[in-house]
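Title: Prediction job returns without error message
Component: structure pipeline
Severity: low
Priority: P3
Assignee: unassigned

Description:
Job completed but the reporter wants confirmation the result is attached to the right record. Sequence as submitted:
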Amino acid sequence: MVVIVALALGLALAIQAWLIKPYQIPSESMEPTLDVGQRVLVNRFVYHLHDPAIGDIVVFHPPAGADNGTECGVQPKPGEPCPQPTKGESEQNFIKRIVALPGDELSIRNGHPVVNGVEKSDESYVIPCGSAAACNMPRAIEIPPDHYFMMGDNRGASDDSRFWGPVPRDWIIGEAFATYWPPDRIGTL
C-alpha cells in the first residue's frame, strides 16, 4: 500500500514537473480571455516538439525588473517598444500572448501589433488599448533571434514586452491550453 501511494505521488510530481502544470491568473492583463483567479493548465513539453507561434498563450519568466514595473534592457527611442530585455531572468511567472517571433519587425498601432508591416487588427479577444503612449509605438524594432514578443489581451492594462522587451525562448515555461477553474469557464484556450 505504501509503495502504491509513493508511486502515485511520484507520478503526479513528475507529470507536474515535466508535462502539465497548473497556474493561477494573477492580474487583469489577460482579460477578457482569462480572469483574475482563473486557473489554467500549461503544457511544459509542447515546445520540445515545435516552436512557439503567434497567438499562443504562454507562461514564462519575464526579464528581471519586469515584476517591479517597467525596466527595459536599453533605453528605447521615443515611440519605440522596448527592443531588448534586461539580462537577468525573474523568478516570477507571467502569462501573455505571443504577438511576434524572432526576426519579425514590430511596431504598435492602436494597441495592435504591426508585424512585418501588417497590422493584426482582427484581434476580437482584446480589450481596446485607449490613448496611452503604449497604445501607439510607431517606431519598429526587430525581435532578436530566439526571442518572442508578448502582449496581454487587456492592452491598456497589461505590463508586457512593450515595456520590458522580448522574452528569450529558454524562459518560456509552456503553452496554456485549457482552463479548469472556475467550473463555468472550463474549456480549451
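Comment from assignee: result matches the submitted record. The chain has a mean pLDDT of 90.
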